[in-house]
Specification:
By secondary structure, the protein is mostly helical. It is built from 16 helices and no strands. α1 packs antiparallel against α2 and α15 packs antiparallel against α16.
Length: 491
C-alpha cells in the first residue's frame, strides 16, 4: 500500500457498482465516502469509550462507592468482552455481511451506553460495560471489513486505513480530555449519554453504504466459550489476586480455569472445520508479528493512560477537566505522527517505521520513571511526547502490513484477531498495573506506578528486538524494498 503526497484518501470517487445499482452521484447511491465516515465514527466512539471512562473513574467511585478492584472491572469488563468476542465477531462479519453486522453492533452499543448512564450501582455498571464491550467487538472487525469492501484499489485503501487508524489513535488520546470535561461539567453519566446521538448518526449513514456479501461460514461456539473463559478467568485472577490475596479460593479457582481453558481453546480450534483463528493464518509472519507488537503496544499505552488518570486526580489532586487537558498535547502528537506514518512508510518502507516506532515507545515507558508527587506539570507533558510519537508511528504501518498479508475474504477474521489481541493487552495491563499501583487503603502508590512502567518498557524492548531479528532474517526482493515488507510467507 502507498499514499499520495497529501496522505488523504480520494474518497469522493465512488467505486464501480453493478449495472443494476443506482448510478454514482445520485441520491441514495452507495458511496465509499459513507463507508469511511461510518467506520471512522464507529471506531472513534468505541475507542473514546475506553479512555474517557478512565477520567471518570474517581467520580464513579465517589458516586457508586466502589474500591480499586471495582474501578479495574469498570475498565476491564469492557475491554475483556471486546477482546474475547472479537474473535468470532470477525467471522460473523464475513458470514452475515459487514454492513449488517456493523448495524447490529452500533444499535447494541447505543443501548448498552444508555444502560451505563442509568446504572444505580457498580454491579449494574459493570454488567452494562460487558454489553458495551460485546457490541464493540461486533463493530470493530466489521468497520475494517467495510473499508476493505469499499476500496478495491490498494493505494486508496491504504489511505483510507491510514485515516481510520488516525481516528482511533486520536480518539484514544483525546478520550481523557472529553471524559474529564464531561465528568466535571455534567457528571460521569454524560460520558455514556454522548454515545446516543453519535450512534443514531452512524445508523442513519449506514443506509448510504453498499450492501455487503454474505459468505456461508459455520460459527465456532466451543472456541468462543473457551476463549471467554480463558481471558475472563485470567483477568479475574490478576485483579482479585492483588486485593484478596493469591491464595484466596476464588483466585485459585480462576487460575485453574484459565490454565485449563487456554489449552482447551487451542484443541477446539485445531479440530473445528472453520475455526475462529485459522491455524494457517498463524503461520504467516505478516500476521504473527503484528499480533505480538500490537499486544505489547496496547498494553503499554492503555496501561499508562489508566495510571495517569489516577495519578493526576488521586496523587496530584487535579479536577477532571484539568486532568483531561493534560492529555491534549499527547493527542496532538498522536495526530501528527499518524498522518506522518504512511508517508514515511511509503518512502522508507514499513519495516523501519514499525521498528523505530516500537523503540521510541519502549524508551517512553522508562522516561516516565522519574514522575513523582512534585514533578512539574510541564515536565510530565514533555515526557508523554515519545509515548504518543512511538505508538502512532508504528500502528498505521502495522495495520496495513496485516491487511496486505490476508486475502479479502479473510479481512474480517484477521482484523478481529488483531484487535482481540490488542485489547487483551490493554485489559491485562489494566489488571496488572491496577494491582501494582493500589497502595494501603486503595491509595495511589508511586512505587507501583514505577514497577508498571518497568514491566511495560521491558515488554516493548523485547518486541523491538524480536522485530529487528525477524526483519533481518526476511529476504525481500530489491523491487519490493520501497513498498515495505509484505509479511507473506516465502514459497
Amino acid at each position: 500500500m502507498s499514499s499520495d503526497e497529501s496522505g488523504i484518501p480520494s474518497v469522493t470517487t465512488p467505486r464501480p457498482v453493478p449495472a443494476a445499482a443506482p448510478a454514482a452521484g445520485r441520491a441514495g447511491a452507495p458511496s465509499p465516502s459513507a463507508a469511511l465516515i461510518v467506520s471512522l465514527l464507529g471506531f472513534t466512539v468505541i475507542t473514546v469509550d475506553v479512555s474517557a471512562v478512565t477520567l471518570a473513574l474517581p467520580a464513579i467511585r465517589s458516586s457508586l462507592h466502589g474500591g480499586m478492584a471495582g474501578l479495574q472491572w469498570i475498565v476491564d469488563a469492557y475491554t475483556l468482552m471486546f477482546a474475547a468476542l472479537m474473535l468470532s465477531a470477525g467471522a460473523l462479519a464475513d458470514r452475515a455481511g459487514a454492513r449488517r453486522a456493523y448495524t447490529v453492533g452500533v444499535a447494541l452499543f447505543t443501548l448498552a451506553s444508555l444502560g451505563c448512564a442509568l446504572a444505580p450501582g457498580i454491579g449494574w455498571l459493570i454488567g452494562a460495560r460487558i454489553a458495551q464491550g460485546a457490541a464493540a467487538a461486533v463493530m470493530m472487525p466489521a468497520s475494517l471489513a467495510l473499508l476493505r469492501q469499499a476500496y478495491e484499489d490498494p493505494a486508496r485503501r491504504a489511505r483510507a486505513l491510514a485515516l481510520w487508524t488516525v481516528g482511533g489513535s486520536v480518539a484514544l488520546a483525546a478520550g481523557p480530555v472529553l471524559g474529564g470535561l464531561l465528568t466535571e461539567t455534567a457528571g460521569w453519566r454524560a460520558v455514556f449519554l454522548l454515545n446516543l446521538p453519535l450512534g443514531a448518526v452512524v445508523l442513519a449513514l449506514l443506509t448510504r453504504t453498499a450492501p455487503s456479501p454474505r459468505r456461508p461460514r459455520p460459527l465456532d461456539p466451543a472456541g468462543q466459550v473457551t476463549a471467554v473463559l480463558a481471558l475472563a478467568a485470567l483477568t479475574f485472577a490478576v485483579i482479585e489476586g492483588g486485593h484478596a490475596g493469591w491464595s484466596a479460593p476464588s483466585v485459585a479457582g480462576a487460575s485453574a480455569v484459565a490454565v485449563l481453558a487456554g489449552p482447551a481453546f487451542a484443541a477446539v480450534e485445531r479440530r473445528h472445520p472453520a475455526p475462529m483463528v485459522p491455524p494457517a493464518m498463524l503461520r504467516q509472519r505478516g500476521v504473527v508479528l503484528p499480533l505480538v507488537i500490537g499486544f505489547a503496544a496496547n498494553a503499554g499505552f492503555y496501561g499508562v493512560v489508566f495510571l495517569l488518570g489516577l495519578y493526576y486526580q488521586q496523587l496530584r489532586g487535579m479536577p477532571g477537566t484539568e486532568a483531561g487537558l493534560m492529555f491534549v498535547p499527547l493527542a496532538a502528537v498522536i495526530t501528527a505522527a499518524n498522518l506522518l506514518s504512511p508517508r514515511l512508510a511509503e518512502r522508507l518502507g514499513r519495516r523501519p517505521v514499525i521498528l523505530v516506532g516500537q523503540a521510541v515507545l519502549a524508551v517512553a515507558m522508562f522516561a516516565l520513571l522519574p514522575l513523582g508527587e512534585g514533578t512539574p506539570m510541564w515536565r510530565v507533558v514533555f515526557l508523554l511526547v515519545p509515548m504518543g510519537l512511538g505508538g502512532a508511528l508504528a500502528m498505521p504501518a502495522l495495520t496495513a502490513l496485516l491487511m496486505d498479508a490476508v486475502p479479502a475474504h479473510r479481512a474480517g477474521t484477521a482484523s478481529g484477531l488483531f484487535n482481540a489481541v490488542r485489547q487483551t493487552g490493554g485489559a491485562l495491563s489494566v489488571a496488572v498495573f491496577g494491582t501494582l499501583v493500589a497502595g494501603p487503603g486503595d491509595t495511589f502508590s508511586l512505587p507501583g506506578l514505577r514497577a508498571s512502567l518497568v514491566v511495560a518498557g521491558t515488554a516493548l524492548c523485547a518486541t523491538t528486538l524480536l522485530t529487528a531479528w525477524v526483519f533481518a532474517r526476511e529476504r525481500v526482493p530489491a523491487a519490493s524494498r520501497r513498498a515495505g515488507w509484505t509479511g507473506r510467507p516465502r514459497d
